[in-house]
Phosphomannomutase/phosphoglucomutase
Amino acid sequence: MSHNFNRTILREYDVRGIVGSTLTDKDAYALGRSYAALAVSEGASRIAVGRDGRSHSPELEAALVRGLTEGGLDIVKIGMGPSPMLYFAVATLDVQGGIQVTGSHNPADYNGFKMLLNGRSVFGAEIQDLGRRAASADWSEGPGSVSEADVLDAYIDALMKGFDGQAYRIGWDAGNGAGGPALEKLIARLPGEHHTLYTDIDGRFPNHHPDPTVEANLADLKKLVADKGLDFGIAFDGDADRIGAVDSEGRVIWGDQLLMILAQPVLKEQPGATIIADVKASQTLFDRIAEMGGQPLMWKTGHSLIKSKMKETGAPLAGEMSGHIFFKHQWYGFDDALYAAVRLIRAVSTSGQTLTELRDQMPVSVATPEMRFQIDESRKFAVVEEVAQRLAADGAEVNATDGVRVKTADGWWLLRASNTQDVLVARAEARDQAGLDRLMVSVNEQLTKSGVGPVEAAH
């Protein structure tokens, strides 16, 4: 009984689609069968399964588990919780892999699956292979069993292990996502005074969209911090694997800025260590890591790609602009917003300064937000390639790790193709607005030459 997935749901890093339209229970079942076949072929026999707080997650989980068990895997269900809790279960239980049913930070009608197997993320070509397996019903058979495990308390214990932070007054916004109940348990253990927003799980996200990288979604947290005069605020995305933060003045501390703060204690303990950030991160971050005696490494955007690079380089810490923070130092190497929050409290404590003071000391630069523009799938990678060739002919200073990142006297600009959507992504950063304007002229010049309309940079 072969099954064809809608082509759009087999993404680079996960399987994700619109429930009832591009993603159904049948897809969940077929994915279970295909993943089981892959797992069994690698000698795996037991995997953990978790789910987020979306209304359709229980039925997708049920269909997934049916497929997994009919494919011969034994399943340990850990119930509803954040994606990092599933990653924690995989790292600590007697299992060889795991799947989280989650729509991450997508709108309420989306859902999907994040997959791990034998110490790696299942992504890229492997996801396409699962599609091929389903289409030809190249499946394993067997009577798998289902059991349950409660890992929440063990997870909170692990988050608190070695905690040496001071007491702060902190605001928290769980965005009605899957991290809410875990956050409530965590703050009961943390010193200080804690004020929370939207810790009740509601898959309709009635208060705001759970994506802390979009500044508009941090409005309620900023207001809470201002109204109560708090030291800082922390926000999570829908499945709590990405973190956002604001200081006491309500200024956003972006992913790369958080990494500057988080890297300091790590480099104190591991001088000369490699710290990884993605190609969208500020030049000031890479400079700062070098200043602190670390080895900065610029790598491709995408949590699966960053995790692979961490393994290869032995990096104790990595991060992305999107708020995925990966600690291998004293942790398991997976992206976890709750753990990143604990480490932020600890890092601010050991710095002897407030988060606001640390933010004040960061080099001043002006940057565009991430600018995204629709492009035909067939032209997506071609445009980036054309730009790369023209820049090479011009003798420009280009880093081609992921798209093109061009360094000039003014600063830098980036153009890359998104792995998850039919869009090109551009970003630029300079010391002042005049420099930024000059960089944007260069970006638009290149786009125009490739027949793509100019992109507006917000001031």
Q: What stands out?
A: Residues 168-253 form a domain with the Alpha-D-Glucose-1,6-Bisphosphate; Chain A, domain 3 fold (CATH 3.40.120.10). The longest helix spans residues 377-394.
